[in-house]
Amino acid sequence: MSTKYNNERNPLISVVMPCFNVASFVDRAIQSVFNQTYDNIELICVDDGSTDNTSEIIDKYCRQFNIKLIRQTNQGILKARRTAINAAGGEYIVLCDADDTIEETAIEKSVSIILDQGCDAVVWEFYSDNGKSKNPLLTYDKELEFVSGLEAFKQTLPKWLLTGIGLFKKDIYQKAFSIYDDMQFESCNSDEFVTRAAFISSNQVAKAKIKYFYYCNEESATKKFKLSWSLRLVTNKAIYDLLCKRKLFGELGEGVVTVFVDELISLKKSYSANKGDLTPEDRNTYIKNCISGFKGVSFNHYLHWLFRSGRSLKNKTHFALTILYFYGQLM
Predict the structure, then answer these.
(1) What is the CA radius of gyration of the chain?
(2) Distances, alpha carbon 4 to alpha carbons 12, 30, 42, 104, 194, in Å
């Protein structure tokens, strides 16, 4: 199905939707996209090796809406997004997961902001949706606020004060993937690095009170312990290296070191709670990954954090004990 129009005020918007075994949810996600008050939209669905009937459900909608369905072997959400972005015909993209939804005016409002203000991205608020109620997870104080790309990057460290979901210029994400390729790493949360790379590639980012609804499945497998969680530190190391390479560590370094500290403490808690269910080999792999990740930051930067950060003595002590715990597990 061809688009209805594509002019300066009504550009084609490409919605990127990775799909993996989402037969129970993809209907509502697709309907959410095409229930938008803005109608010059194409949806790029990448079936990332589903073993259920996800593709068949999407294919049904291809006859009704402007949808491109791409099938590939399972490669993970980041590679599925890249496949979709490369296939996108629009100058602007929206990321939408296949079990999530978007409020009806989201794209229309975002297009107006990005065209009127000349910014590179409009990022939305995050709400949880368990099928019964919608609750705020990350919201903004102002209806609309503009920050530089560097400030947006800064607001992801150590905690995310803005989301990576919204409307982006396509070339911003292409630049972000180029940065990711230069870093040459893979991890379970590499998509977070790409989002940060998109921010650092932007001149101006708008934070808008526009709602994105994240489906919160209490039975989701993503809530269960995974050995791959220990590789989150690989992503943190890539962020650390990027800041050092761009000579931004002096300005943003304390935030990224705090991310390492918080992540290590969290990984220790998860390991302690689940190590009884792990094989000796898996325990060893997890511990070695955590120690390797810890070593990714210069010891001097840890010392600076310990003496200069605003964290409590209790938190700093907890960090020190966490490191001793991990090294002790190897004995």
Answers:
(1) 21
(2) 9, 18, 11, 19, 32
